[in-house]
Amino acid sequence: MSTINEAVNIRKITPVPLKRVSIDGGFWLQRQETNRNITLQIQYEQCLLTGRLNAWKLDWKQGDANQPHRFWDSDIAKWIEAAAYSLTTHPDDELERQVDDAIDLIAAAQQEDGYLNIFYTVVEPHNRWKDLKDGHELYCAGHLMEAAVAYFEATGKRLLLDVMCRYADYIDMVFGPGEGQIRGYDGHPEIELALVKLYRTTGEQRYLELCQFFVDERGQQPHFFDQEAASRGKQPSRTGYAPYDHYQAHLPIREQRTVEGHSVRAVYLYSGVADLAAEIKDASLYEACEQLWNHMVEKRMYITGGIGSTDHYERFTYDYDLPNDTAYAETCASIGLIFWAHRMALQSGDSRYMDELEHTLYNGTISGVSQNGSRFFYANHLEVLPAAHHFNTLKFNKTAVAEQRQEWFGCSCCPPNIARLIASLGQYMYAEGNDEAIIHLYGESHASLNIGSQHVELQQQTNYPWDETVSIQVSPERAAEFSISLRLPGWCRKVQVKINDQSIDCIPLMHKGYIRLTRTWSPDDRIELILQMPVEAVEAHPEVRANAGRIALQRGPIVYCLEETDNSTNLRDMTVSLDEMPQARHEASLLSGITILEGTASRSTLQNWEGKLYRRAVAAQDDEAKELVTFRAVPYYAWGNRAPGEMLVWVGKK
Amino acid sequence: MSTINEAVNIRKITPVPLKRVSIDGGFWLQRQETNRNITLQIQYEQCLLTGRLNAWKLDWKQGDANQPHRFWDSDIAKWIEAAAYSLTTHPDDELERQVDDAIDLIAAAQQEDGYLNIFYTVVEPHNRWKDLKDGHELYCAGHLMEAAVAYFEATGKRLLLDVMCRYADYIDMVFGPGEGQIRGYDGHPEIELALVKLYRTTGEQRYLELCQFFVDERGQQPHFFDQEAASRGKQPSRTGYAPYDHYQAHLPIREQRTVEGHSVRAVYLYSGVADLAAEIKDASLYEACEQLWNHMVEKRMYITGGIGSTDHYERFTYDYDLPNDTAYAETCASIGLIFWAHRMALQSGDSRYMDELEHTLYNGTISGVSQNGSRFFYANHLEVLPAAHHFNTLKFNKTAVAEQRQEWFGCSCCPPNIARLIASLGQYMYAEGNDEAIIHLYGESHASLNIGSQHVELQQQTNYPWDETVSIQVSPERAAEFSISLRLPGWCRKVQVKINDQSIDCIPLMHKGYIRLTRTWSPDDRIELILQMPVEAVEAHPEVRANAGRIALQRGPIVYCLEETDNSTNLRDMTVSLDEMPQARHEASLLSGITILEGTASRSTLQNWEGKLYRRAVAAQDDEAKELVTFRAVPYYAWGNRAPGEMLVWVGKK
Asked: Does the pLDDT of residue B589 top 60, yes or no?
């Protein structure tokens, strides 16, 4: 167990901000370009088309089409935030004009008292602050705060920041323990982490204190949601359909030890809690985060970094319940997991958080957007049989669980969320401290770091995650002693490090999963890192029922899957031997360049099955009933970009 | 493909009626006694308690408690039918008095014009015959007709039979192709098979013709359900939530080739269609039945004889979709499958229908009632993990999918259905023809058959299904030549037959799955049949995703399962080798006497898994990660009668 003191010490390490990181090529440049050129524009058009943008004019009236939804505000907010990150690294007048126009609408929508919310201004004005449990008012406010901070950081323009400070001031007046104030909190966490951002940008202590108020109040007795229900003349709904664990409000946060309820709510909340713990140096909050994190990654996380095992309330279910075909694994939840992981990584200095961040990033997160940037998954299944999904679509009548990416959703939280993540990727790669530069993530890029009083350029040249080699050019202004800490990925079992072509023994240099290279660094020093990337089979804990007798294929941080278009149907029947691991081969022309796996699998012939659904199984029959076939696996994130059909992550173990 | 001519020839074989069959001991006597002493009484009390019985007084008024449901009538009807079968073989004054009292109430509830239905008399009288699609009026009528016939056959009492003939006459007036008649049919088939029973008992040709009308109209265009919806000012609902295949009304019956929609509706319908085909000698109807049957048993039936793979509309889904934990496999559906199988068996003379009947009977049907006769499954899962079911109960909020048997259900179709099946079991065992006696099912019993002009007693002495040996005493009035056809069960790979201790070569005697023993039979002739019953592993078709890499254990007609109470938790992780089949052992004191299986399985140790959800899988690691354990399997039908916990039918194949 880490203590907050330890965490606080390490907190001196801060991420290198987006504007000092440049992604120059490779895997992420391609995605950022698609994000900028396609995704952001498509989302702007969808916001126009669906009425989300113009809803800020507040001219909707009962009976009009396109009734604003309770969290439409957040869709625009996330789009602005994504655009802001993109503008930080890639100025674009047209995009900036679109954002400015949107911000003008938003600013004009702010009420006299500072209040700012579409739904509760035009649809249900009489219900302002009356349904904190499900109304999403503070959730929307939080997303707008994040947008305001990002846009200010990107452009220096203060309009939205000022609007949101005014709104925050008003919220701070409305909420609190004082007489006449609402002693409550939002059913959907988000404002907590947003208030910390606003505090860090403005230095306004009240925003941090308001965050602490929301965090401290959550789950206390008598229960705010009960009181709120009572004040609206309703029965409290503590149990049953959506119990309070759905909102992570079943217990005070410091007493929570298992991740429960709605998965997006959970990871947004714990991200804010981790921020708060760092700012106010609260060991009990930090410990809660650490234990909740451990519970999540040890019992309730898909191998893709997906979380939330069921469409039912998009929630965590029970330990080791990780069904593949009905996996929910919402894109937003994996993104929130990345937020949380980043905060834990910075505070703990432990590489295991960045391991999960990287793993989630390359698998269950970017699976949420199509190769061409224009279609999105809400739920990220780990197994797809079109017939089953056709039937489920009939059953649930919702596109969130669709087996192919969709253009948009009624509740369209995921598309702008993936856009802001991709646009902001640079901020996760590097961190800096007084005497230390840290490389968290590998990828073609360069960054300007401030190490103590000195300016250091780091440049990565690599075709990671496809290639094993990362070459790092170190360029301090002048020769100086400091450390460069390189994350040794958890998936990597064999590493070689050379400094200026001289091999280094890493073992004595390991520090919480990082290879700490401390020396006097001179301009033109070069580090070469070789992270061996064999194809590996991964098995799940024996209590994961869904994966009994199955393995997943992985190479580096990439989890693979089989698709029907490469392997025909009935993928679940295939078995792969641990003694014959498939071979990796790069295919530059396939899906913008991916490394595929090719190997031999065994599958059933359908011989002697005519007219039978069941038959006697005898050992001797096994061989004749099976045939060897060649199979091809592609990165999980890249699936569903070719012909629709079956997909499978966990293949049978021969 | 059989032709109807062939079928019609064989139709001269008729089942030996219940009153000429006596179950003297063994497996079924025990169940019939429990059914008579416990189940029937409990159901009577539930009908009293829930208001079902007194609802016939028609004194319910808007605002009263216990609003009658649209198909309450059928619950009482099935209870009367069950009681009638029981009274046929076991006279019981008290039970007969209860039935007579109920019938008095029902008779008094009949309206002037002959109409008879609780809901549409007291709750929605204005909607009589207005919602055939979902109203269940003719469905309820059908069950009351079945009850009337059964009670008349049992006791000779005509009151209910007369009431139902009057109702049938009224229905015959209301429905038809003529002017002013409703050219439609019920959304829930049942009246079709009931009208054939009524016709066979009364000889009234109009009842058969009405059945034919309902069968011929079903699924024709323009669609009756569209017209009905239009006449109520509603939009037709051909597609979406409950398309017409739910009602088997998507196509005319003669054009249906795949079993679709609500599984109970399907098997009730096709039972009636098979009856009609036989009565009117319609080859196209018979062929449709045959193809629908083949589709069901080859693509959409659980190994337990369960049908209907999902709680969503209790329906068939798509080919090879047979999930175990979310199996619906409603008890009523397996019972309906037995009805259909019996009709197909009698018409085709082919043992494969009785094979499925027997298999369904011993597995997915009697699993629906507890050992003590007082608790019931609605859905019969093939795999249970209590945590998952706890969560599903939260999600679906219904007891139909519960993981433990329940005392009763809001929609309580299954309990009285299993009661009538068990009480009527004798009628499935024997059949008779001009020159042939047929034994369809084995079990301690004796029967009086009419073979041509001669009276023949057959007596089975056996501990079937636990023992392999069936001893049959043949007692014709006098020596005479005729055939005795013994079904060779499909599960049996090795059989020995002796007549008066002399071995017989069966192979030349096989006829459509029956061993036809033709000779001059004399009083005191004795047949000994030894049906070898090794423990066998069964595998499912490779396209059954849920069972990939898994086997089920079976001995004779009994499918086995593993329970937590015998084998600890995480059953899905266990693997069994085909080279080491478990041993059978009879346990006279366990669950009223069952044969259990005991063997060796391999299961994961949890060594080196601390803090991990995923890890690298390597071949060499396999052995140390596994340990050998002894396991015990019990008959599937008997599960859930001891400590609650996990249950699994399909175990991993090592």
From this structure: yes
Question: Is B540 found in the same domain as B526?
Answer: no
The answer to whether residues A426 and A445 touch, using CB atoms and an 8 Å cutoff, is: yes
Q: Which domain covers residue A83, as residue numbers?
A: 50-238
Query: What percentage of chain B has pLDDT greater than the value 70?
Result: 96
Where a domain ends, among B237, B257, B275? B237
Model confidence at B373: pLDDT above 50: yes
* Residue-averaged pLDDT of chain A: 94
| Chain B residues 136-195 within an 8 A CB cutoff of chain A | none
Q: Do A614 and B541 touch (CB under 8 A)?
A: yes
Report the gap between the CA of B536 and the closest CA in chain A (Å). 7
> Nearest Cβ partner of A578 from B312, B548, B618?
B618
Categorize the per-residue pLDDT at A4 as very low, low, confident or very high, splitting at 50, 70 and 90: low
Q: What is the DSSP string of A225-246?
A: HHHHHHHTT-----SSSS-GGG
Distance from CA of B610 to the nearest CA of A (A): 9
- Catalytic annotation present for A413: yes
Q: Return the structure tokens found at A130.
A: 């009356």
DSSP for B176-223 reads SSSTTSB----SS--HHHHHHHHHHHH--HHHHHHHHHHHHHTT-SS-
CB-based contact B541 A613, cutoff 8 Å? yes
Confidence grade of residue B237 (pLDDT, cut at 50, 70, 90): low
A586-630 per-position pLDDT tens digit: 999 999 999 999 999 999 998 889 999 999 998 877 667 899 999
Q: Are residues A269 and A348 in the same domain?
A: yes
How many domains does one find in chain A?
4
Same domain (yes/no): A223, A74: yes
Can you give the C-alpha Rg of chain A in angstroms? 25
Q: Which of A260, A314, A330, A646 is catalytic?
A: A314
Q: Span A451-478, mean pLDDT?
A: 96
Residue-level pLDDT at B394: 65
Q: Do A527 and A539 share a structural domain?
A: no
- A391 with B241: Cβ contact below 8 A: no
Residue A314 annotated in active site? yes
A234 and A221 Cβ atoms separated by less than 8 Å: no
**Which pLDDT score, from 0 to 100, does residue B446 have?**
96
Q: Which of B384, B412, B440 is the last residue of a domain?
A: B412
Q: Is A577 on the interface with B (CB under 8 A)?
A: yes
pLDDT, tens digit (0-9, with 9 covering 90-100), for A392-441: 766 656 666 778 899 888 888 999 999 999 999 999 999 999 999 999 99
Residue in this structure with the two tokens 């062939």, named with its chain if needed:
B6
List CB contacts (< 8 A) between B538 and chain A. Answer: 614-617
The 10 Å Cβ neighbour count of residue B203 is 9
At B243 the pLDDT is: 84
Query: Which residues, 6 or more positions from B200, have their beta carbon under 8 angstroms from its beta carbon?
Result: none
What is the average per-residue pLDDT within B278-300?
97
Q: Is the pLDDT of residue A537 over 60?
A: yes
Smallest Cα–Cα separation from A343: which of A287, A254, A278? A278
Token pair 């000195």: residue: A454
Instruction: Say which of B319, B570, B615 has its CB closest to residue A539.
Output: B615
**Mean pLDDT score across all residues of chain B:** 94
Q: How far apart are CA A437 and CA A451, in angstroms?
A: 7
What single-letter DSSP state applies at residue B582? P
Chain B hits for A545, Cβ within 8 Å: 385, 570, 572-573
Chain B, 625 to 654: residues with Cβ < 8 Å from chain A are 652-653
Determine the residue among A313, A577, A613, A626 to mutate to test chain B binding: the one whose Cβ has the most chain B Cβ atoms within 10 Å.
A613
Interface of A with B in 517-536 (CB under 8 A): 536
B421 within some domain:
no
Tens of pLDDT, residue by residue over B320-354, are 999 999 899 999 999 999 999 999 999 999 999 99
